Amino acid sequence: xxxxxxxxxxxxxxxxxxxxxxxxxxxxxxxxxxxxxxxxxxxxxxxxxxxxxxxxxxxxxxxxxxxxxxxxxxxxxxxxxxxxxxxxxxxxxxxxxxxxxxxxxxxxxxxxxxxxxxxxxxxxxxxxxxxxxxxxxxxxxxxxxxxxxxxxxxxxxxxxxxxxxxxxxxxxxxxxxxxxxxxxxxxxxxxxxxxxxxxxxxxxxxxxxxxxxxxxxxxxxxxxxxxxxxxxxxxxxxxxxxxx
Length: 244
Known about the structure:
The protein is an all-alpha fold. It has a domain at about 65-235. Helices cover about 75% and strands about 0% of the residues. The protein has helices at about 15-45, 50-55, 65-90, 95-110, 115-120, 125, 135-160, 165-195, 200-235. Helix 3 (about 65-90) packs antiparallel against helix 4 and helix 8 packs antiparallel against helix 9 (about 200-235). The two termini are about 20 Å apart.
C-alpha cells in the first residue's frame, strides 16, 4: 500500500512535494521573523525599517498564540487527520489511527496549555527550593508528559502489534521523526532545571531558536510524509490496475 511507485517521464510532481516546498517556505519566513523580532532592538534601534516584526509577540514563535506556534499546530493536526483517514481504509492499519490520536492529543495539549498548567499547579519549586519558578513549571510539564505519554505509548505498542507490516513500517518512521524533537525538548527542560542561567542572553535565545526550529521542522516532516502516504495509497498501482 505504501510502497513507492516509479514515476515515468512526463508524470507531474506529487502534490505532497508541492505542499512540502510551500510549507518549508513558510517555515523559513516564520523563523526569520522570530529572529528579527528578538534581534530587532539591536539591528534597528530606532525602529525605522522593521517595526512590524518588533511589534507584539505575534512573531515570537516560542510563545503561545504566535504565528509559528499556530502554524505548527495546523501542520500536526492535518497530519493527524491524514493518518486517521489512512487507518480507516484498512483494519490492519490500527497503529496509524493510534498515531493520529497521539498527534491530536499533542495539539490539544498545546492549545489548552495542559502541561504548563499542571507544571505550575504541582509547585515543585516548593518541594525543591533550588528550582526557579520557570524550571519548576518545565519539570512539572515533563512529568505530566511522562505519565500521559506512557498511556499514549501503551496504545501505540498494542496497536502496532496488531497492524500489518506496511503500517508498522510507517509507525517506525514516525517514531524516528519524533525522536530528535523529544531529545531537544528534554534537553531544554534539563537546562532550565539544572542551569537556568544558560537560558538568558544570547545563548538562551540561540537555544530557544534551536528548540523552535526543531519543533516546527518536525511538524513539517510529519505533514509532508503523511501527505506522501495519502497520495501513494490513493493511486492504483499500474501493474494491479484493471486490464480492460
